[in-house]
Amino acid sequence: MIRLRPHHLLCMLTYKGEGYSQEFVKNFDRLTRQLAATGEPVEVVSGPDDVCAPLLESGECHCFSPSVVERDQKAAEELSALLGEVVAPGATLRLTPARLAMMKTAFRNGDIRSACVECPWKDLCDGIAARGFAGTRLPG
What we know:
The chain is mainly α.
C-alpha cells in the first residue's frame, strides 16, 4: 500500500517529473507508476509519507514544518467533501481513473486548492492544470 499525506494527493495530480532532487523525482516517478499500473490503494497518513522518503534521507526535510501540516489539514477537508468520505490518517482510498479525473477537474476549477496557496510549487501547478494536465504521470 502506498502511504500519502493529504496534500500529496493534490501534488500527484500535477506531477510530471519535477521535484527537489533526482532522488525525489525517481521516487515520485516510481510511486505514480505503481498507482497507475496497479490501482494500489493509498493509505492516508499524518506526517512524512512515501513521497517524502528521499527528503528525509537527505537532511533537507521540510516535511514536519507547521505550514506543511496546515496544507495537509486543508487538503484533507476539501478532499473529504469532494470524495464523500473522510480523508484522514488511517483512511484507505482507491484512486481509480474516474476518481482521479474528478479530482483533476476540481483542482483545475480551484475547488480543492486552499492547501496550495502558500506552496512554492503553486505557479507550476497552476500552469499544468491550465494546460489540461498535459504530461502528468497519472491518468484521469
